[in-house]
Amino acid sequence: MAKKRKHVESEDQEAPVDNKVAPSRPKRTLLGWKDKPVGEPRSDGGEVFRNKEKVLVTCSRRIIFRYRHLMLNVVSLLPHCKKDNKVESKESKGATLNELVELRNCSSCLFFECRKAKDLYLWMSKCPNGPSVKFLVNAVHTMEELKLTGNHLKGSRPLLTFSSNFDGKPHWKLLKEIISQIFGIPKDHRKAKPYYDHVFVFSILDDHIWFRNYQISVPHNESEKFDRGGLEKMTLVEVGPRFCLNPIKIFAGSFGGPTLYDNPFYVSPNQIRALEKKNKAGKYAKKVKAKTRRKMHEMSNPLEPDEFADLWKD
């Protein structure tokens, strides 16, 4: 029977072990391998910028279903947002919202405020130092009621397009910057897809901002692949929702502070409803005055007696 070798002999025959440490594996992202970690200083002395924008989306109490569905549509379009409970719409709502934004570790806020179960106001704010904008929302159409044929992937990043009117006046430039920071989805966000397949369109018409959402549709067949350079075959299919923003005021702070811009053409919905009631009341007053004028005319101009009135009495 063969004898077992001693352990000492096997240890002497082994090659010397190198104690060098293997290089660390680079970090992998959705777009591929990353050479430099985030925050590493660049050659020019600065740091690599990373967009950490997070948006808190909430609404006021007693909001109606139509405006609540619009808010949920906006939440579905922004994967970097956080939805919170309803907030009481009072004068002190600014301090409450700023505290909520800080607790949820966000940097911006979208607050849908409903008044009198009729009017919808939208607050866009950069917390906690501002600026903030108050809009009146008109022409609301949600995804459920439009029934459009567009259907982009949930969580994909949108292309933000603005009309040339935004570069005209200073307050439009400020609004463009606020909208681009809030609606622009960060590149490396964990819930966002790393490509673009829809477009957010912001256009100015009659001093109102009109919002549209379009899917980028490309006809593609397996036999005939689509060339990247050719944009002639691409089409835009509307997805929704639709709404119109009428800017009221721009504040220097978050949900308040010094007024940077006040819209001179803004008319509140309460004034419009009051004018409509006055017009209806004026119509009734005109009818009453016409009846009194008719009676006075008949009394001042009596008819002559008819000679044939008693002809058929017998």
From TrEMBL:
Domain Brix per the UniProt entry, residue ranges: 53-256
Key word Chloroplast present: no
One GO biological process term: ribosomal large subunit assembly
Compositionally skewed regions (Basic and acidic residues) per UniProt: 33-45
InterPro entries linked: Brix, BRX1
UniProt keyword terms in alphabetical order: Nucleus, Ribosome biogenesis
Compositionally skewed regions (Acidic residues) per UniProt: 304-314
UniProt keyword Mitochondrion present: no
Main location: nucleus
Sequence segments annotated as region (Disordered): 1-45, 291-314
Domain of life: Eukaryota
Molecular function GO labels: rRNA binding
GO cellular component annotations of the record: nucleolus
A Pfam family hit: Brix
Subcellular location: Nucleus, Nucleolus
PANTHER family for this protein: RIBOSOME BIOGENESIS PROTEIN BRIX, RIBOSOME BIOGENESIS PROTEIN BRX1 HOMOLOG
Family, similarity comment: Belongs to the BRX1 family.
Protein name: Brix domain-containing protein
Organism: Acorus calamus (Sweet flag)
